[in-house]
Amino acid sequence: MEVSNVAIVTGASRGLGHALALELLRQDTQLITVARSHDTGLAAQAKESGCPLHQIQADLSDPDAAQMAADQISASLPPSAKRYLLINNAGTVEPINQAVDLIDAAATARAFNLNVTSVITLTAAFLRATHGVTDRRILNISSGAGRNPTPGWGVYCATKAALDHYTQVLNAENHGVRVASLAPGVIDTGMQELIRRSDASNFPDVERFAAMHEHSQLSSPTAVAAKILRYISQDDFGATVLDDIRNYA
Ligand SMILES: NC(=O)c1ccc[n+]([C@@H]2O[C@H](COP(=O)([O-])OP(=O)(O)OC[C@H]3O[C@@H](n4cnc5c(N)ncnc54)[C@H](OP(=O)(O)O)[C@@H]3O)[C@@H](O)[C@H]2O)c1
């Protein structure tokens, strides 16, 4: 079967990534997903839409597993699609601690591996596997936290700042791929539940996040996913490398 669009979405089993994956399947896209868990909802949508779906189960906080996932992606990409899209969405906000309590080096390394190293590894595989293709796009899901220092989020802020800077380097290298690092706003996902469960001694801003939830000020994953997919499809996608979806209607 000839496909026009191929997409890879990491962290597609829950939250924003799941909403992005569901919508891509509705838009006639051949989809490859990466997460630790298999998702039956995605499989059902793929069946209904008649879209090929390949779910890769991998722990992207483990560099060897990320490398294996990258190799699997390279091997699964169909030739001659019109557009190839990589959405690096999987991420973690943990560990949430003040700097003095960031004493678990392994937990810090896992966050960097997931939020930064796996992105770099998957991107390299994507660039190689799609070499010569005219329409290639990479969207890295960043966070306002990468641009605004937030007490308690030393690791998360550092990883998202690294992701932003890496994306700017990728753009400067001129690989003929359009790239952006996008802050998605505050979305009603499992990550926000975890943030609201934080202890104020670790994360002093916890009450503000609880109040936003109480006043229904969080965006729905479905609405943000639809907005992001419109954003990616724009002809000038990549013109603004560091971007924020809240800048768009
Ligand atoms: N929610 C927000 O308000 C918000 C705000 C700003 C930025 N963001 C960013 O948006 C992205 C998505 O966040 P979300 O809120 O949708 O998060 P979420 O609800 O916690 O979902 C995270 C997704 O990433 C996957 N994942 C987590 N650890 C993984 C690992 N070790 N290996 C592979 N996959 C892993 C999870 O799947 P498995 O558990 O099955 O592995 C899940 O599909 C993240 O990059 C986050 O930093 C979110």
3D structure, described in words:
The protein is α/β, with parallel strands linked by helices and 249 residues long. It has one domain (5-188, 221-237): NAD(P)-binding Rossmann-like Domain (Rossmann fold, 3-Layer(aba) Sandwich). The chain has eight helices and seven strands. The protein has a seven-stranded parallel beta sheet, with helices on both faces. Helix 2 (40-49) links the parallel strand 2 (29-35) and strand 3. Helix 1 (15-26) packs parallel to helix 2 (40-49), helix 3 (63-76) runs parallel beside helix 4 and helix 4 (105-129) runs parallel beside helix 5. The longest helix is centred in the middle third of the chain and has 25 residues, at 105-129. It starts with a strand and ends in a 5-residue tail after the last strand. The mean pLDDT is 97. NADP nicotinamide-adenine-dinucleotide phosphate binds next to helix 1 and helix 6.
